[in-house]
Amino acid sequence: MKPMLERKRRARINRCLDELKELMVSALQAEGENVSKLEKADILELTVRHLHKLRAHRSLRLTPEAAYADRFRAGFTHCAAEVSQYIASTVATPAPVDAAVGAKLLQHLGSCIRRMDTTPAASPSPVGAPQSYGGAYTPPASPQDDATSVKMEEALPVWRPW
Description:
Orange_dom; mainly alpha; transcription regulation; 5 helices; bHLH_dom; MYOD Basic-Helix-Loop-Helix Domain, subunit B; protein dimerization activity
């Protein structure tokens, strides 16, 4: 059983190396380099070198943080457009969204989008942290949360280092 698995594994490796070789030969020929016979180690070395070159070239275009911020902005804008369409579609229904509430919501979403457009990308932070999107969106606190936090602040003693 093991020799058969080993043969299949080697066959997969060789297929992938052959595919890499074809890709690398065409990529290197496009760059004007002449490549004749390549051994497995040569294929891997050329691939690694080529990937490093691509990474260096692409890093000048757009940093990952900026790409995340751009994707977030695009998603947020799309979501705001969906909300706008939904509000507009409920006008003719038996239970439309209150016009004042809808207008206020759309105004808020618009101001969030404008803030995102004027806020520079934040410094690198863990993915999913609010700061990674320029800090543009912070969920509003409800009046109940504000009252609870005031009561807790009054009840708990404040630690001071001195």
